[in-house]
Design a protein that fits this description.
The complex is a heterodimer of chains A (about 325) and B (about 240).
Chain A (H helix, E strand, L loop, with lengths): L1 E12 L6 E12 L3 E5 L6 H8 L7 E6 L2 E2 L4 H7 E4 L11 H11 L8 H11 L12 H13 L5 E5 L7 H16 L3 E6 L10 E6 L2 E6 L1 H6 L5 E5 L3 H9 L4 E7 L2 E6 L5 H9 L6 E5 L3 H11 L9
Parallel strand pairs in A: 3-8, 3-9, 6-7, 7-8
Antiparallel strand pairs in A: 1-2, 1-4, 4-5, 9-10, 11-13, 11-14, 12-13
Chain B lengths: L4 E10 L2 E11 L4 E6 L5 H8 L7 E6 L2 E2 L4 H7 E5 L10 H11 L4 H14 L15 H12 L6 E5 L7 H16 L3 E5 L3 H4 L4 E6 L2 E6 L1 H7 L5 H9 L7
Parallel strand pairs in B: 3-8, 3-9, 6-7, 7-8
Antiparallel strand pairs in B: 1-2, 1-4, 4-5, 9-10
Helix pairs in contact in B: 3-4, 5-6
Classes of the chains: A alpha/beta (about 325), B alpha/beta (about 240).
Chain lengths: ~325, ~240
């Protein structure tokens, strides 16, 4: 059973003479109970897509059904069964924590007590601050309050647009643990993030770039499908190492990954040749074969499609 | 070895609250130094002092050769600063932004002209010189912001959460620029929330509750804390924080 079915949607924005394509021909399905992630950078089209899925924008063409209902015809019914946490903090800054929760509960004809079991784990972090104005909360707390408000009416499907952007590593970890526990309460979750490392925390992910889905699959399947050997290179001069690697015809790609450069070759059999050529350029070289990460796959898919950042005219 | 950043027992108190608690460290010339910490750990307060924007309650620092307590204005002139939140004027063109920042840093017209040309050609932006910054993609804006922050050839560049949100290729192009200036001797001081960015740094320090709880190369920190990546190192250190936000 699918909670979400999206067929060939397109959306452009901007003036008619010079439309900017936000989404071109997007299709996918999300199964009931799944934790589904959209991974992509700023400007990839994630927010436009979320606004269509949550009935706030109408696609130019294509069909979307949420819980079996059409996003255009049945938007009112859909709004009752979904929760949405936008990327920009959108609660009332001049209401307190408790007042915000009460406000959203009342709008949906419910109370905090009625659905307390659902928000208990999150609300417990907020309870000490319940009389504080939402505008005066820290980033991590705002994010928890927004999640609380998005859950208060017991939605079947939850949409979270970049919930972890700008949040520190400890709060991010806690947030993903919260999402897992919500998933166990039979809520379908669709989440977006610009952070590639968060892909592995989802059941399935779509890699999205410039309005196109590059790939959809389980994260471990995406990384298995990388399809060529990948090496991590390291030397005492990483800056020069990159230039030296890129000067070799054998090298297909070389991307900095923290303290390593991730390297693929046009013909993997040439690795020993590459090693000796680099060593002859005075590098204290260490290298090893490594499994690809989601980010390696993303980079490879981007360059395969020859997607470049367009220069506006 | 020269140390463009030297910090000795630096402390900043706001009433009873000690935001930065007696920190001491040095950063080498040409080093890429990562400055990490959870929200509220004291990163911003520390960085504001290093940039000469706020004076310490006690302790000393020498930045770009100037004593923080005596010559904060000289420090401001001799460092570069870039933040993702604010860097360029979006309703000015690329060329106007370069001219504006060149003027702020006291470059003469001749120098501004030659800087503008080198910058535009290095960034392959000659065709875009009269484009408004707001209509350029984020990845491009970041590269321009970085170059503009370097317009007066500072010895130190401070980068405040520079690369959030850009695509993986644009992000690497940005780091290549950072490597290049570091290779030419500029000291790079970076704050970030994202631990994979920390892996790019020569050394990393992690602030917890106003103190520096760890300072080493990413590789040694991972060994020391028996962790597979910097994220794990950070979580192990920061979860002991006693500060509530």
């Amino acid at each position: 059973m699918n909670a979400i079915v999206v067929e060939k949607i397109k959306k452009s924005s901007g003036i008619k003479k010079k439309p900017v394509v936000a989404l071109s021909d997007i299709s996918f399905e999300v199964k009931t109970g799944e934790l589904f992630g959209f991974i992509g950078a700023d400007g990839a089209g994630k927010t436009t897509l979320f606004r269509i899925l949550t009935t706030l924008l109408i696609p130019d063409s294509g069909k979307v059904s949420i819980g079996g209902m059409d996003v255009v015809d049945d938007f009112k019914k859909i709004r009752k069964i979904i929760g949405y946490m936008p990327g920009k903090f959108s609660l009332y800054q001049d209401l307190t924590v408790e007042e915000n929760i009460q406000f959203f509960a009342t709008i949906f004809n419910t109370t905090l007590t009625e659905n307390y079991h659902l928000v208990k784990d999150i609300y417990s972090h907020l309870e000490n601050f319940k009389d504080r104005k939402a505008g005066a909360l820290s980033g991590g707390m705002k994010q928890k309050l927004a999640l609380c408000c998005a859950l208060i009416h017991k939605p079947k499907i939850l949409f979270l647009d970049e919930p972890t952007t700008g949040v520190d590593a400890v709060s991010r970890k806690e947030f993903w643990e919260l999402l897992k526990s919500l998933q166990e309460k039979n809520i379908t979750i669709v989440v977006s993030t610009p952070y590639m490392d968060e892909a592995t925390l989802c059941d399935r992910v779509a890699l999205i770039h410039q309005g196109l889905i590059l790939q959809i699959n389980e994260p471990q399947v995406i990384t298995q499908n990388f399809g060529k050997p990948l090496w991590a290179f390291q030397s005492d001069n990483m800056y020069k190492l990159r230039l030296d690697l890129l000067s070799l015809n054998e090298v297909e790609s070389c991307y900095p990954f923290g303290q390593y450069h991730h390297v693929t070759l046009n013909n993997p059999d040439n690795i020993l040749e590459v090693e000796s050529k680099i060593k002859s350029k005075n590098h204290e070289l260490r290298y090893e074969k490594i499994p690809a990460s989601i980010e390696d796959c993303f980079l490879s898919l981007m360059s395969e499609r020859k997607i470049e950042t367009p220069i506006p005219v | 070895m020269t140390y463009p950043i030297q910090v000795q027992n630096l402390t900043k108190k706001f009433d009873q609250f000690t935001a930065v608690d007696n920190i001491t460290f040095k950063v080498k010339e040409g080093e890429i130094f990562g400055f990490l910490g959870a929200n509220g750990a004291g990163k911003t307060t520390a960085m504001r002092m290093l940039c000469g924007l706020s004076l310490p309650t006690s302790g000393e620092a020498e930045i770009a050769g100037f004593d923080l307590n005596k010559y904060p204005e000289k420090i401001k002139k001799n460092i570069g600063y870039m933040s993702q939140k604010f860097s360029l004027y979006e309703d000015l063109t690329v060329r106007e932004n370069i001219r504006f920042y060149g003027g702020i840093y006291g470059l003469d017209n001749e120098k501004i002209k030659s800087k503008t040309n080198t910058m535009l050609s290095t960034l392959s932006l000659l065709e875009e010189k009269n484009t408004l910054v707001k209509s350029l993609p984020l990845g491009w804006r970041q590269k321009i912001a970085f170059s503009v922050a370097m317009v007066h050839d500072p010895k130190i560049i401070f980068l405040d959460e520079p690369t959030g949100g850009v695509d993986p290729i644009a992000r690497r192009e940005f780091w290549n620029m950072i490597y290049e200036v570091a290779n030419n001797g500029t000291t790079v001081f970076v704050t970030t929330h994202y631990m994979d960015e920390a892996e790019y740094c020569s050394r990393v320090c992690i602030m917890v509750d106003g103190r520096i709880d760890a300072l080493d190369t990413p590789l040694s920190l991972k060994k020391q804390f028996n962790s597979k990546d910097m994220n794990e190192v950070f979580v192990k250190l920061a979860r002991h924080s006693k500060r509530t936000e």
